Amino acid sequence: MRVTILGSGTSTGVPEYRCECDTCQCARRPGSHNYRTRPSMHLEVEGLHLQFDTGPNFLDQIDRCRIHQIDAVVYTHAHSDHVAGTNDLVMPCRKQQCDMPVYGPAHTLDALQRSFDYLFTKETFAGGGVAHLVPHTVEGPFTIREVPLTPIPVDHGAVVTVGYRIGPFGYVPDVKRFDTGSVDLLKGVEVLVLDALSFNPKHPTHFAVSEALDVIAEVAPRQAYLTHMMHRIDHYRFPEQCADQGLTLPENVALSYDGLVFEL
Ligand SMILES: [Zn+2]
Ligand SMILES: [Zn+2]
Ligand SMILES: [Zn+2]
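Above: query sequence and zinc ion SMILES. Below: predicted holo structure tokens.
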């Protein structure tokens, strides 16, 4: 199984527009791990290529990370930082000469069909200028070409949101609270990628680092990576920042970054 973190930033991306803080200045330098596009991930497992979310940076992300195949798209929820690039599925569909299966909670698929109705209408495909998406509603554990996926229901404010477990790997980019039993669904994963927006636990819809560390301690993966970070988190000063906040950073926790690839 091979995981590519395509985007590790929050909905605004980093650098933040017009911000001149140290992290944003660093993010504007070539090759900086503080440069974070909107959250997205690609997973290759047993020859199956799964794309998780298609946010506003989607097409640039898959080109930059040389993702040359997408067999299905799996959605976490309908916030625009996760779905605004859905129209760009036209390129994978055109290159692969195929329709694209898309999986997600009913609420997410409804939102996609309202925003991108023309992608769900076979007739509009005739000109070749748009993708054709085939919706599959996620209601519980399911398989895509024999690969089992388990949705992890989470509380992320008003919008219905899930993370996913695929065998030894868990991906939960947007969460404020785990629903009853949801943390248990992640127990036993080797690697967990988890939301950590900032150091502020008062944020209404996203984990702070402290909240992420609590869940990581409970799930106890071999390795955890934080994602969906805003500019308050500096890739190069993170251990120091944690110490300033009175947090002990465990050895198995690191920040993810755009373009991070790992195998498990
Ligand atoms: Zn900034
Ligand atoms: Zn969200
Ligand atoms: Zn998000």
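The first strand starts at residue 2 and ends at 7.
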